[in-house]
Amino acid sequence: MNSSRKHHLKSLMLSIAKGLLDEEEREHEMKKKRYMAETCTPVCMPRTMQELQEQCKEIHCNIDKIDEERYDLQMKVTKSEKEIEDLKFKVQDVLGKFKKPVLKKVRMTADAMLKALLGSKHMVNLDLRANLKQVKKDVKEEPRTTVNDDFLCPVVHIATMLVPFFSTVWVKGMSKVRGISSMLVMWLGAVILSRQ
């Protein structure tokens, strides 16, 4: 479709829409005039004081009725607005919560974060390591007891050969025997300590 045809169609649509709006406005004015003619009777000025008081009473009664109707309509509107809000929440629960936006990772120190949150009021330094006490620990060297290397070498050699064997033993299709290797290590430790 070329541009002149698009322009022609656009102007045609605008003219039709303008005609519809004018017609709707005329209809609205006619309805307004009919309503005013029905509800507001032409004012006739009373000649006596009693007629004037009666007319004032009628006007006040009409005002009270209209005010009651207005209040009832207002209550209906507020009730329907509450129902609409409740239904919106229910729809949101059924369809799922709104998606949380993916937050970017920002490297910030604790000081920078507090400064961003509290503004220039933040003057406290959060260097918690500065507040710690310095503790000096005296390390005491205990003399180690030596084990006879001649005895230890064959025992360690046997243990390294037996540990894989004991850790993979199967008992009649049941689970692996556990704890045999740890029992072997404990036994070897007891033997080593008894030799000292």
Q: Could you spell the SSE succession in H and E letters?
A: HHHHH
Number of helices: 5
Question: Distance between the terminal alpha carbons, to the nearest Å?
Answer: 105 Å
Can you tell me the overall shape? Answer: elongated
Largest sheet: none
Can you give the helix content as a percent range? 55-70%
Strand content: under 5%
Which structural category do the helix and sheet elements fall into? mainly alpha
Uncertain residue segments: 167-178
Radius of gyration from CA coordinates: 48 Å
| DSSP summary, beta strand count | 0
What is the typical, i.e. mean, pLDDT?
Answer: 76
Based on the model shown, name its key terms.
single chain, 196 residues, mainly alpha, 5 helices, Troponin I, fast skeletal muscle, acetylation, Troponin, actin-binding
Describe, in plain words, how this protein is organized in 3D.
The protein has 196 residues and is mainly alpha-helical. The protein has a domain of 30 residues. The protein is built from five helices and no strands. The longest helix has 47 residues. About 6% of the residues have low confidence.
Fold topology:
Layout: H1 3-39, H2 49-95, H3 110-118, H4 149-167, H5 180-195
Helix pairs in contact: 4-5
Short description:
This protein is mostly helical. The protein is 65% helix and 0% strand. Helix 4 (149-167) runs antiparallel to helix 5 (180-195).
